[in-house]
Amino acid sequence: MTLEAYFPVLIFILFGVVLGGVLMSIGRILGPYKPDAAKLSPYECGFEAFEDARMKFDVRYYLIAILFILFDLETAFLFPWGVALKDIGWPGFIAMGVFLLEFIVGFVYIWKKGALDWE
Fold first, then answer.
1. For the chain, what are the domain ranges?
2. What's the mean pLDDT in 25-40?
3. If you placed Cys at 46, which of 27, 61, 86, 94 could pair as Cys (CB 3.0 to 4.6 Å)?
């Protein structure tokens, strides 16, 4: 196998790197840049970072993040199912129906428990 087969991939990678660099440079040159103390301060986890490191903080931020990841991954299973629907036929359709029913029941459960309420 010769390296000529990989030449289009190399061109694609180089084009992506150059385009990304050009767009970031244009944004840096034309965009507003007015740093102040608030913008340059570290920000993490949805709460103010200016207090004692041993303070108690609300874990709802992490709960929302975990639930987002959970439901995001579950919805990612819909893409391969949609692509392969012709091949898997009715058994695959019924299996995905059961999966979606479990998905909806779980979502309604966390909604009713108030896990999605921020305040």
1. 55-119
2. 84
3. 61
pTM of the shown model: 0.46
Q: How far apart are CA 105 and CA 71, in angstroms?
A: 12
Q: Comparing C-alpha atoms, which of 43, 44, 47 is closest to residue 57? A: 47
pLDDT tens, residue by residue, 34-72 = 888 777 766 655 555 556 666 666 677 777 788 888 888
CATH of 55-119, one of 3.30.565.10, 3.40.190.10, 3.90.950.10, 1.20.58.1610: 1.20.58.1610
Over range 21-37, report the average pLDDT: 89
Q: DSSP per residue over 23-84, as a string?
A: HHHHHHHHS-----HHHHS--BTTB-SSS-TT----THHHHHHHHHHHHHHHHHTHHHHHHT
Q: Calculate Rg over the CA atoms of the chain.
A: 24
Joined tokens for residue 76? 């990612």
